[in-house]
Amino acid sequence: MGATPLSLGRFYPRRKVDDVSPPAIRLLWCGDTALTVEFGDRIDPALNARVLALDGRLRDADCPGLVETVPTYRSLTLHLDPILVDPARLEATVRTLAALPAPPVPPKRVWQVPVMYGGDFGIDLADVAAHHGLSPSAVIERHAAPEYRVVMIGFLPGYAYLDGLDPGLALSRRSSPRPTTPAGTISIGGVQALVASIAAPSGWHLFGRTPVRAFLPGRDPVFLFEPGDGIRFVPTDPARWDALDRAAAAGDPVAEVAA
Amino acid sequence: MSGRLAVLACTGAASLQDAGRRGYQRQGLSASGPMDALALAAANVLVGNPTGTVAIEFGLGGGRFRQEGGEAWLALAGAPCVLRVDGVPVPDHRAFLLTEGSSLVVEPPRRGVYAYLAVAGGFAVPEILGSRSLHQRAGLGGLDGRVLRVGDRLDGIGAPGGESPPGIHASLDPLPLDGEAPVRVVLGPQDDHFPPEALAIFAEAAFTVSHRADRMGIQLDGPALAHGRHGYNIVSDATVMGAVQVPGSGRPIVLMADRQTTGGYPKIATVISADLRRVAQRRPGEAIRFRPIALADAFALARERMAVIADLPRLARAHGTRMAESLASANLAGVAVDAFADPLGDGM
């Protein structure tokens, strides 16, 4: 990351480093079907604000061949129809739009997400607390305190990656991933926090579970969260799991939106 | 004349796939769709469908089916498969009529991996988020969000515009699998994570398709690709179909139609869209080589590929005419042609 581009004489000199200042972007072609606009190589809310700003501007721009976009922590990928796209024109459009100022904007909506912490719901909570010399309830308090920002939805349908974790809770991933973790898992990995949707393998530390379905085929909307949304975790009595879980399975979001 | 195709037996992972699902990668849902888009298009053209109509995708497998409640025109294209209608062999890459009560056997291919069985009019499964393609991991699309199994009944939508859809007297040359030539890639998006030696190995070595190959990704055996001083973790970014991701083991994985939408491993190169089907059709144990090309050439090859797909209906009609003529002359020569040896079912 941030390396001097390799000089590959017999290969196509694809890499371009923008010298416009501030701040430089890199345009990385992913074959003939996508262009990744890289704003940086680290997790940084300022970079994500630029990602989301470009994403919004592209929606209103005239970009032949642009099929869909994927915002991540620090880059925006444009999926393209290789027949319709004009690569040079697209690069120019992206550079123009990315150079516009992109002040961070507050989230349009903030979700209140109920979480059942610890015990069978979050089997790593006690270990993480011990690691940091905290009580489990202090970990819950710190995890539920911030307003997080959805910076990327990816990997699997509805998996919401969050920025905003208390650095005092950060902990690098487990050395061996678990072959499966339950749907609705609330976890952390490094400085990242996650709301999982469906069951999947994971090497992250499991703090709890939410009955909220970030992804539910058959419900309208199928996906609950959008990149840029705010998230607040609401510690919730495990005794309420069954009722909330049933309601969520039936299509109730069970996550409230605060304006 | 809509009819149903009943699944009597099924091997491998057979799923329903159309052109794929657009617009939900920002929500973590990859596009799915065919592993071999040219083969899906060909199967559809043979029965007079638009190229992206939903069809059955077989992956290293086959099946046994029975036609119920009416007759249907079908065609299979892609990996070559032995087909039998009521026990009588029928060629692939050619339309055939399956009458009510008839059975169809699709034998697993001996070459290639993915084959597509299209029915005139398509299969009547609901569109989910704009597509009928199965995304197995998400449990969404296809028939009830899962692969086909014994006992399933696939309703046909029925041929549009009458009993015999336009272009039905159609055949195509079997699609080449192009196994030998190197698969063309564009380097990047993270080729700068690899030292020149690793890039040289990637461009020159022979890799082997492993048994860990499915619609999500195709893991390759062969020389490990060492990462440079930045290591093998990146802050996750988006993936495309054809991305050659290199995890800590150094063993490359080509991400495919049902892949994860984002990933935290560097991607040394990206298979060009025109060559994706050639990767998909390589069987476990078969060799695969990569050749970096210029981005501009990748776009040119994509346009060539589109021209080939656009030309399929004309090719199929031309073939069909020649085939009908040869069948007619065979009849004039006094050769008996029974109902099943005449897969066109046109009595010639």
Structure description:
The complex is a heterodimer of chains A (259) and B (348). Chain A is an alpha+beta fold. Chain A has 5 helices and 14 strands. Chain A folds into 2 domains: 74 residues, Gyrase A, domain 2, CATH 3.30.1360; 149 residues, Beta Barrel (Cyclophilin), CATH 2.40.100.10. Chain A is globular, with a radius of gyration of 20 Å. The N terminus of chain A is likely disordered. In chain B, strands 20-13-14-17-16-19-12-21 form an 8-stranded mixed beta sheet. Chain B has 2 domains: 196 residues, no CATH class; 111 residues, Cyclophilin, CATH 2.40.100. By secondary structure, chain B is of the alpha+beta class.
| Stretches with pLDDT under 50, minimum 5 residues of chain A | 1-22
Please, how many helices of chain A? 5
Calculate Rg of chain B over CA atoms: 21 Å
Biggest interface reads: A-B, 52 and 58 residues
Instruction: Please trace the helix and strand order of chain A, writing H or E for each element.
Output: EEHEEHEHHEEEEEEEEHE
Q: Distance between the terminal alpha carbons of chain A, to the nearest Å?
A: 38 Å
Number of strands of chain B: 21
- CATH topology category name of the largest domain in chain A: Cyclophilin
* Distance N to C terminus of chain B: 23 Å
Radius of gyration of chain A: 20 Å
